[in-house]
Design a protein that fits this description.
Blueprint (H helix, E strand, L loop, with lengths): L26 E2 L1 E3 L2 E3 L6 E6 L4 E7 L3 H17 L6 H17 L1 H12 L3 H22 L3 H4 L6 E2 L2 E5 L5 H14 L3 E5 L6 H12 L7 E3 L4 H9 L5 E5 L2 H11 L5 E5 L5 E4 L5 H13 L11 E5 L3 H13 L19 H16 L3 E4 L14 E4 L6 H4 L6 E7 L2 H9 L6 E5 L3 H10 L4 E4 L18 E2 L4 H6 L2 E2 L1
Parallel strand pairs: 1-5, 7-8, 7-10, 8-9, 10-11, 12-13, 12-17, 13-16, 15-16, 17-18
Antiparallel strand pairs: 2-3, 4-5, 6-20, 11-19, 14-15
The chain binds NADP nicotinamide-adenine-dinucleotide phosphate (NAP) and magnesium ion.
């Protein structure tokens, strides 16, 4: 199924990752109180592989009653066990999760790519190792909270309700579960409906690590399951990653309650290239910024700003680089761009592409031949784009880049900040002084210098404005799970 580009730069023999070591159950129940259990009334639904539309497994749609049972289990575990345990003891459990994840890394990577459509190279080299590293990192903090918050009396919130999106399923679960456990909270987590498998596998890991029953509970299903968690009276904190639309709903739902919340929402990141940058590296950075994970990245560099003097050169190199990208089988180790996560998301992307054309922008689409089955989108560039174009304002969440030019530093800062979002930005320049000046003026939670999409458990991540509030990662990530 690996695509054959019409304009081939080189031919690569398919190198599919083996699936023989992968053990997927035909059905998954809800993980409540340390056990997988059937819903009393809930239905099952299929999770499919977006690269071939084949069913992978059946997942349970939790009911409100199931969410109640899960929250009750979490509350009991908090009151009777987890809140009484020392940080050092909690840390041991979290280390165990990290180690088992590492041992099962290959299996997790394959399932993440099958269920979500992302290239195996990314799930193998980024998602899974980074998820394990988050558990290692926060395991280390569990017995050192007094050093993280000196001279303060701190307390966990209690039961944390956590809701994750489909673009980095296991990684987002790790970002949420690890700091919550380290600080002594118990958890009810809902993964996204299209990509629940690795979170359910993580439940197996949690079982294997011997966590006391009820400390982590996983309830699967669609949006309303998330809403039940949000509105549950016994949930003390909500941590949500997803769209700004649902984030606003949660914000409203929690107004006037004493629940604490963190919201990690959408973005429209600016990738800014100056004429003094190392152009070839910058072109790689643009490709990584928007085509990485099919552009299903909240912090994607989906707006490119190129200094006018180098616009021609950058565009030429970018188009050439795009022609060499391999779109196809996510399990093939050569693949650069995998499948779009769902048909629904593919439609959203296609609609934006139509809007871009209607708005009068010039479009360039990679000439890759796309597989017939599954959900695919070739890498797409728009030039001749202005600030008022919808494609330069709204989050597309696909491999679609809107390109604009600029002349001066002041102009590009104004343009880059002209967005309701404020999650990420990238700056490419040879001058350190320019980098520091720019990074203090760009309104974005994360700013990369001469690189893009780099993550580390020790580094906090989060947004400004409509990209949300609160931080995940680093010491900052602990603060959102405690009361002082
Ligand atoms: P989404 O539609 O907002 O869904 C996110 C999660 O919320 C899913 O688990 C979803 O369940 C659930 N949900 C839906 N309706 C809900 C409700 N009324 N109450 C509570 N939960 C509800 O977002 P998505 O489409 O999965 O993810 C893409 C978005 O996430 C993009 O906008 C992206 O920028 C953002 N994102 C942000 C970050 C960040 O760190 N800032 C990271 C990753 C993604 P279902 O899946 O079953 O609908
Ligand atoms: Mg799936």
């Amino acid at each position: 199924m690996t695509k054959k580009s019409k304009k081939k730069t080189w031919d690569l023999v398919p190198a599919p990752e083996s699936t023989s070591h992968v053990n997927i159950q035909s059905e998954y129940g809800l993980f409540i109180n340390g056990k997988f259990q059937k819903s009393k009334k809930g239905k099952m639904y299929d999770t499919i592989n977006p690269a071939n539309e084949k069913k992978i497994a059946k997942i349970t749609e939790a009911t409100k009653a199931d969410v109640d049972t899960a929250v009750l289990a979490a509350k009991k575990a908090y009151d009777n066990v987890w809140s009484k345990m020392t940080g050092a003891e909690r840390g041991k459990y979290i280390y165990r999760i990290a180690r088992i994840l590492q041992e099962r890394a290959r299996e997790f990577a394959v399932i993440e790519s099958m269920d979500g459509g992302k290239p195996i190279r990314e799930s193998r080299d980024i998602d899974i190792p980074l998820a394990a590293n988050h558990f290692f990192y926060y395991a280390g903090w569990a017995d050192k909270l007094d050093y993280a918050f000196p001279n303060q009396k701190i307390k966990p919130h209690g039961v944390a309700g956590q809701i994750t999106p489909w673009n980095f399923p296991l990684l987002m679960a790790a970002w949420k579960i690890a700091p919550a456990l380290a600080t002594g909270n118990t958890i009810v987590l809902k993964p996204a409906e299209t990509t629940s498998l690795t979170t359910l596998l993580l439940a197996e890991v949690i079982q294997e690590a011997g966590l006391p029953p009820g400390v982590v509970n996983i309830v699967t299903g669609h949006g309303p399951v998330g809403a039940h968690i949000v509105n549950h009276a016994k949930v003390n904190k909500i941590a949500f990653t997803g769209s700004t639309g649902v984030g606003k709903y949660i914000h409203n739902a929690l107004a006037g309650t004493d629940k604490s919340m963190t919201l990690e929402l959408g973005g429209k990141g600016a990738n800014i290239i100056f004429e003094d940058a190392a152009i070839d590296q910058a072109v790689e950075g643009i490709v990584n910024g928007i085509f990485f994970n099919q552009g299903h990245v909240c912090c994607a560099g989906s707006r490119l700003f190129v200094q006018e003097s180098i616009q021609k050169e950058v565009l030429k190199k970018l188009k050439h680089r795009i022609s060499t990208l391999i779109v196809g089988d996510p399990l093939d180790k050569n693949t650069d761009i995998g499948a779009i996560n769902s048909n629904k998301q593919l439609k959203v992307i296609k609609d934006y592409v139509k809007i871009g054309q209607k708005e009068g922008a010039d479009m360039y689409v990679g000439e890759q031949v796309l597989p017939k089955k599954g959900f695919w989108c070739a890498p797409t560039l728009f030039t001749n784009v202005s600030q008022s174009h919808i494609i330069s304002k709204e989050e597309i969440f696909g491999p679609v880049l809107a390109i604009q030019s600029f002349r001066t530093v002041a102009e590009v800062i104004k343009k880059a900040n002209n967005t309701p979002y404020g999650l990420s930005a990238g700056i490419w320049t040879d001058k350190g002084s320019k980098l520091f000046n720019m990074s203090s003026q760009l309104k974005a939670g994360v700013i990369w210098g001469n690189t893009f999409n780099k993550f580390d458990p020790g580094s906090p991540f989060g947004g400004y404005k409509e990209s949300g509030f609160g931080r995940e990662g680093g010491m900052h990530g602990l603060a959102d799970y405690i009361k002082t």
